Amino acid sequence: MWPDHRESIIFLLFTVALLARLRAAAVGVNWGFSSSHPLPPATVVSGLLRANNISKVKLFDAQPAVLESLAGSGTSVVVGIPNEMIAVLNSSKKAAATWVHDNITRYFHNGGVGNGVHIEYIAIGDEPFLLSYGVQFEPFVVGAAINIHNALVDANLVDRIKIIIPCSSDVYQSNSSLPSTGHFRPDLNRTMFQLLTFLNNVRSPFVLDINPFSSLQQNKNFSMDQLLFRSAAHPLTDGHNKYKNFFDVSIDTLVASLTKAGFGYMDIIVGKVGWPTNGAINASSEAARCFLQGLIEHLDSKIGTPLRPKRPPLETYIFSLLDEDRRSISTGNYERHFGIFTFDGQAKYNVDLGQGSKKLSNAEDVEYLSSRWCVVNNNKELSNASTSALNACAAADCSALSPGGSCNGIGWPGNISYAFNSYYQLHDQSPDSCDFGGLGLITTVNPSVGDCLFAVTLHASFSSSLQGLQTLLWRTSLSAFVSVHLLHLSV
User: Fold this and answer.
1) Where are any strands of DSSP class E within 103-205?
2) Helix or strand or coil: residue 57?
3) 415: helix, coil or strand?
4) Closest alpha carbon to 82 in 153, 140, 162
5) Helix 385-395 and helix 478-489: axis angle, to 10°?
6) What are the catalytic residues?
7) β-pair partners for 353
8) Model confidence over 141-155: pLDDT tens digits?
9) For the chain, which domains are there?
10) How many angstroms separate the CA atoms of 168 and 250, rounded?
11) Is 94 exposed, middle or buried (0-12, 13-18, 19+ CB in 10 A)?
12) Strand, coil or helix: 126
C-alpha cells in the first residue's frame, strides 16, 4: 500500500504546485521607468520579481538595460511601444521592421532555451484612445499594429508573440453604470471596429486598463466596499445579474461592448489595475492592501463574472511594481504612488503575489546617497520661504503634501522643509541645491515626522540610461497641484 500512498502524495503535491504556478502565471505587474532615481534593473529582477515569484511583467518601453536584466529569468514579458512612436510606425514599414529587430529579435529567447527574454506580447501604445488625447494617436494605432505584425511575420516570430493595444476604460460607456448597457464610444466606432477585426484576425486578446481610484475621484458616490472587494458591499443589480465589486462591473461592461460590436467571445486581459497609497484622500497602504488582496482572491476563485462565468481575464497586471516620482500628475498627485513597493524597493504592505504565506521580499543591497537632508533654516527670515518651496516643487515631487497625503499634516514650515529636501535629493544632494537664497540648511538629523518620510535618494548610476524615456508630461500640472496645497498650509 505504501507505494500507492506515496504516488498519491507526490501527485497531490504536483497538482498543488501546478495550480499555484497557474495562478501565479495569471497575475503580473507593471514595471514603469518614470523615476528620477530608479533601482538598477538587476536589483528589480533578482530582489523583487524572482524573490517574490512574480512571473509576468509588463514594460512601457523597450529599455535595453531592462531587457538584458530579464534575459534568462524565465519571466514572461510584455514590451511596450510609447504613444509618441505610433505615428512613425504607422507610416513606415521599415521603421516597424527596425523596431522589431532592435527591441524584440535581439533579445528574444530561442525555443524557451538559453539566456533570451521570454517576450509574450508587444503593446502598441499606452491607452492611445484616452478621451483626453482626442485624435492625437487614434488614426495611427491600427496601422502601427499591422506594420509591427508584418515585421513579426518577417522575423518568424508571429506564432510566438502577440500584439495587444492597451485601452483605458473610457473607450466604453454605459447607462446608469449598468454593465449590460455598455457600448464603445461613438467617436471610436470606426476605429474600434478596425481594431477588433485586426485583433480577431491575429487571435490577440482585448486589453483593458481599469482604474477604480480614478473612478472614485470622478464620482464620490462610488461604494468603497465595492471598490475594495469588501464582503459587506451592497450589490449592483442589472437584470438577473448582481455585481458586488467594481472589477466585475468593468469587465462585463467591456463584454457587453464587445458583444454589441460583434466580438463577444474575444479574450480579455487586464493591463493595469491597482490602488494608490499616497497623494490623495482614500489613498493609503491599508486600502491598497485590501484592494489587492480582494482582487487576487477573486481571480484565484476563477468564478469569472456574471456575463463570463468561470472565465476570468486571461492575465491581470497589477499597477504597479514601484512608485515613480516622474509620472504625470495631470489626473492627480496620487499617480506617483501606485507601487506595491516604494521607489527603493521596500514593500508598503503584504499581499500574495506568488510568494504564498511569506511576507514580500524587499530589495537588498540598495545603494543610497549619504544620510543628509535639506531643511529650512529657522534662524532666517522666512517670509519668502513659500515662494522658494513652490519653485522647488515645480521640479521635484511634493505629491505627499496633497490633501490626504502622508505629509499633509506636518504644517508650516515643515512643508517647506519637505519641498526643499525633495529638490535636494532630486539633484543628488549637491550643496547648491539646498541654497534657496540662504533659506536652506543641510542636516544629518532625519527630519521625518510620523508617516511623513523625508527620503534619501538612490545613487544615480542607472538614471542616465533612462533619461531618454522621460516625457514632458510629468512637468504639466505639477506646480498647479502643489502650489494650492503649499499656499493652503502657509501662514
Assistant:
1) 118-124, 162-164, 166-168, 172-173, 183-184
2) strand
3) helix
4) 140
5) 150
6) 127
7) none
8) 999 999 999 999 999
9) 22-341 (3.20.20.80), 373-443 (no CATH)
10) 11
11) exposed
12) coil
Distance in angstroms (rounded) separating the CA atoms of residues 318 and 30: 6
Distance CA 341, CA 361 (A): 10
More confident residue, 128 or 220: 128
Please name which of 25, 39, 49, 45 lies closest in space to residue 360, comparing C-alpha atoms.
49
Instruction: Please say if the pLDDT value at position 3 is more than 70.
Output: no
Q: Three cell numbers at 46?
A: 533578482
Predicted confidence (pLDDT) per residue in 408-451, tens digit: 999 999 999 999 999 999 999 999 999 999 999 999 999 999 99
Is the CB of residue 60 less than 8 Å from the CB of residue 33? yes
Q: At what angle do helices 478-489 and 414-426 cross, to 10 degrees?
A: 150
Name residues whose C-beta falls within 8 Å of residue 304's C-beta, 6 or more positions apart in sequence: 310, 311, 312
Please provide residue 110's backbone torsions phi and psi, each rounded to the nearest 5 degrees.
-105, 110
Distance CA 319, CA 341 (A): 11
Residue with cell 507601487: 339
Residue whose C-alpha cell reads 514595471 in the numeric block: 31
Mean pLDDT confidence for 83-107: 98
Residue 83 has pLDDT above 60, yes or no: yes
pLDDT over 70 (residue 13): no
Give yes or no for a contact between 340 and 348, defined as CB atoms under 8 angstroms apart.
yes
Instruction: Give the burial string for 226-257 (b: 16+ CB within 10 Å, else e).
Output: bbbbeeebeebebeebebbbbbbbbbbbbbbb
**Of 442, 319, 315, which is closest to residue 375 (Cα–Cα)?**
442
Pairwise CA distance, residues 468 & 473, whole Å: 13
Q: With contact defined as beta carbons under 8 Å apart, do 68 and 47 qualify?
A: no
**Model-level pTM?**
0.90
Counting beta carbons within 10 angstroms of the beta carbon of residue 440, is it exposed (0 to 12), middle (13 to 18) or buried (19 or more)?
buried
In terms of phi and psi (left: phi > 0; alpha: psi -120 to 50; beta: otherwise), the region of 230 is: beta
